Structure formats: structure tokens, C-alpha cells
Amino acid sequence: MEAKPSSNLSSKFVDQVVVPGDVILDLSSMANQTIKLGGGLRQDGDSISVMKAGTLRFTKPNKYWVESSHKRYVPCAGDNVLGVVVDTKPENFLVDIRGPALAFLPVLAFEGGTRRNIPKFEVGTLLYVRVVNANTGMNPELSCMDASGKAAEYGVLKEGYMFESSTGLSRMLLSSPPYPVLEALGKKLSFEIAVGINGCFWVNASQSSTVILVGNAIQKSESLSMVQQKIYLEKLLKSIQ
Amino acid sequence: MEQRLANSLIMTVNEKKFIETALLSDLRVDGRRPFDYRKLSISFGREDGSSEVQLGNTRVMGFVTGQLVQPYRDRPNEGTLAIYTEFSPMADPSFEAGRPGESAIELGRIVDRGLRESRAVDTESLCVISGKSVWAIRIDLHIIDNGGNLVDASNVAALAALSTFRRPECTLGENGQEVIVHPPEAREPLPLIIHHLPVAVTFAFIGKENVVVIDPTHHEEAVMGGSMTATLNTNGDVCAIQKAGGEGVLQSVIMQCLRIASVKAGDITSKIKSAVESYNTERSLRKIKRHNPSPAGYKH
User: What is the phi-psi region of residue B281: left when phi exceeds 0, alpha when psi lies from -120 to 50, beta otherwise?
Assistant: First the structure.
């Protein structure tokens, strides 16, 4: 770990298990530094303390967050999630992102969105959205645009099936280098996948059997070690030849 | 603050369409075929009459207890059987603590009808003093996790718990009016007399063509048009059928379902019996360890 002169405290805790109440940074010893806090951390005056149990992670230049794997999701700004439209209001769509509260998706939060071309979503539409802000006690706010206002890949997901996983598995699916299960499946089968960090992923393929195979393989692989995953995948891919 | 709509599973339109499309090629979302059951595992607690059943993601615990009570006036020679269900809020977001809701009561009724109408448990042997004192057997079913098909899992939990329950032995006092209940240390408790095991098998009808699937998962239950539960035993008797609302079903489909159900009932009955047997073996082994070896040369 490189020596960081002003973050001596944090280097103790990065990549270690932390529990709620741990103070990981003392801001009084750092001057003129911007720190970005991700999920699980809170600013208490001059100290940054942990709210959620898990492993503390750090990426350059200045982002800290706590990683843990749950079946329930705690919304955090900047996350890409899968949501289901539950209701339509004049100003917002109410979207369920598997968190403690429903989220609001403003009707204008689409690329080139104006009052004239508000999309019509029926109840049960599956969307890939970005969490814009998620303060505790308030409903999270979503957007179908990225930070620069382009649609990117956000929007409605048609066909396919949404499988549930845990937040930890979703993170592994999104990591780079790619998750070995995804790589192995991708070499033999062709499918489309959208991963939400809120503990679910969507798979689509030309055949239902492929969708079912991919979804179940990913769900099962969570509890297997690397070696077991390889064996499981080999058996699976051989059986579909 | 808008709360989640906790009362129903929020299904996407994609899921509903996918489940129906996949069923047209005989595929289910968890990889099963339409007439495959999920993995059933039965385990027991240390006490007699407590069971835990896991059917896929669905978990149910059953507890059987007995008490001496006055019999009903019109049935002075018979003991009573009562079923209580508790849908724990940790099983599903739509379950609320407190009074049982409609589905909880329906589940209790299905299990109750399967046991009572078919006379699976011999109630006359539960009579101690006619007209005065009989055993009242109470079955408590706790739903711990709802992964779909609670009826079948609860039924197996009730049967497993009943098969391992033992009631204390009781004898009449000197004047023939008093009942002496012997503690388990003094006299070995007695098992219930169970004539047969009525097993419930649930079918779901999904989609416009009413494709039949057995043992629906939580998601399949949310998209199904109707469901039917058939309770049968291995002797070929149909103990009960429950079809509460939903799509109409052809008579030929019902007969096909009953045929499939009798095959599945055989599988499940043999699983219950082997689990109960291994529990009883383990129980008797435990008793052997309790006794001290006799001082007069107990040699290995």
C-alpha cells in the first residue's frame, strides 16, 4: 500500500472488516482534501464513521465505501439498479428498487424528455436506472440518463427474466476482470445480461432454455468456490452440447 | 415517505410472459420440468413431535403437543385434533403478525381436512375416561420462509411431527375416576396410532392454455390462474380435494392431476417414513446411553 501522508488512519482499515461505530478517518488531520463517501459511511462532524458492517474499500483518488453482501439493498447515490414500475404519478413514476422505500423516477429524467413525450410505463415494467440521490428518510431519486444527460443503456428492459441474487453476487458480476462464470457461459452461449447492484440481474436470450440455464448457473455459483465453479460449469456446458 | 407496497410480490411483465412462454416448451424457471417436485428434506428437533421441513426455499416447522381435556358432548369417546397455523412475518413481506389472514386459515383448513375427514389419526385411542378425560392433540405449524407451495410443506411437517409425537402414558387411579399421568422418565411415552399418511399435492394452472405444474414456486404462484390441492394416501384413497377459485378446469385434467398426485404421494410418504424411522432409531440409541451399565460385568 503506498504511503499516503494525510490518510494514516484509513490505511489501517482499508480492505479490513469494519463494524458500525468504527471511526475510519479523522478529518481534522487532513486539510483541503475532497473525500467521496460511498455506502455504509457517514460524516459525524470531523470524523467519518461506519454505519454498515462489512469490508472497507478504497479506490484512488479518494473514494471510500463499505462492502457487504445482503439480500436487501440499501440505496446509495451513483448505483445502477433494476427497478419495477409500481405506480404512475403526474410528476414521477414510483419504482420499486428492492430497498426500504419506493423510489421516484421523474417523468422528465429521460434523454430528450419534455412534457410532450413522457413515456408511458405500465405497472410491472422493468427498468435499468441510476440512483441520483438516496438520503436516509427520503425516497431515493432515480434517473434514466447518465451524469452527462445521455441515455446510455438506461431504460426499459424487454423480454427476458429477472433473477434474484445478493448484493455481493451483483458486485462480483460487475467486477473487472469479468466473473469467470459469465466468461465461461459467454464463450458457449449468446445472451444479454443487465446487472443491478440491488441484488438482481436480468437475462435475455433467443431461447427460454438459455435464459434459464444462465440465470440458474449464476445463482448457484455464488455458493461455490473457484474450483467448484469450474467443475460445475464444465459439467453444465457439456450437458447442453 | 412512501412505503413499499408490502402486500404483494411485485412481478414484472417480463417475468409473467417468460414463465408462460417457457412453459410452452415444458421448462420452468428453476430448471424443473412441469411435474417435478423440489427437494424435500425433513428433520426433527430433540423433542418428540417437532419437525422442520424444507421444500426448496419453503421452510415450515411443525410442533405437536397434547393435553388432557373434557371431550365434546356428542363425542365422549374420542380425542380431538386441532391445527393452528402461524404465518411468521419473516417468511414474506405480506405476512403480518397477529390474527391469521385468509390464506393462513385456508391452509389450516386444508391440512385439517386431510387429517380429520380421512381419520388418519385414531382418535378413539386418545380416550382415557369416556365422557370425562380425553387427549386433545394440538398441531402448530409455523411458516418460516415462503418460497411457494406452503400447503404441501405444511402438510408434510404436520405428518412428520405427528409420526414422532409421543404422549405420556396414563393409568386410572384406584377408584377409576382419577387419571394418573406418568412422566416420561417413569414410563415410556406412547406414539399416536396413525392409520395412514394423507399427503397433499398442489397443482398450479398457468397461462391461457392452463398448463399444469406441480409444486409452484413463489413466482409461479403470483402468475397462476388457479390452483388445486389433492390430498391422497398410498392406499389409493383420495382424502380431500381443494380448488378455491381461479380458472375453470376440465374434468379430464383433474383426473390426470389425481393420477400424478398418487405417484408423488407415494414418493413423499416413503420419504416421511424413512425420516421418521431414522429419528426413532436415533431416539432409542439415545435412550440406551442414558442407562448406566450394570455393575455385574458389562463387557464390550
Answer: alpha
- How far CA A142 is from CA of A150, B239, B241, in Å, comes to 14, 53, 48
Identity of the residue numbered B6: A
User: What per-residue confidence (pLDDT) applies to B4?
Assistant: 45
Alpha carbon distances (Å) from A32 to A37, B203, B290: 16, 66, 72
Is residue B100 a contact partner of residue B86, using CB atoms and an 8 Å limit? yes
User: Which residue in the set A101, A124, A126 is minimally distant from B4, CB to CB?
Assistant: A101
Alpha-carbon distance of B154 to A39, in angstroms, equals 40
Distance from CA of B246 to the nearest CA of A (A): 22
Q: Which residues does chain A have within 8 Å of residue B12's beta carbon, measured at their own beta carbons?
A: 84, 124-126, 162
Selected from 2.40.50.100, 3.40.1190.20, 3.30.390.30, 1.10.3490.10, the CATH number assigned to the domain covering A8-67 reads 2.40.50.100
Predicted complex ipTM: 0.80
B131-181 pLDDT tens trace: 889 999 999 999 999 999 999 999 999 999 999 999 999 888 877 778 888
Report the alpha-carbon angle A205-A209-A212, nearest 5.
80
What is the CATH T-level fold of the domain A80-156, as seen in this structure?
OB fold (Dihydrolipoamide Acetyltransferase, E2P) (2.40.50)
Size of interface A-B (CB pairs under 8 A): 69
Low-confidence ranges of chain B (pLDDT < 50): 1-6, 298, 300
User: All 3 cell numbers of residue A56?
Assistant: 472497507
Which cell numbers in the block locate residue B27?
421448462
The reply to whether residue A202 touches residue B14, judged by beta carbons under 8 angstroms, is yes
Taking contacts as CB-CB distances below 8 angstroms, the residues of chain A near B1 are 101, 137-139
The pLDDT value given to residue A10 = 52
Is the minimum CB–CB distance between A81 and chain B shorter than 8 Å?
A: no
Spatial distance between the Cα atoms of B120 and B83, rounded to a whole number of angstroms: 14
Work out the angle between the directed axes of helices B13-24 and A208-221 (0-180°, nearest 10): 110
| pTM metric for this prediction | 0.85
Q: Which three cell numbers stand for residue B96?
A: 403480518
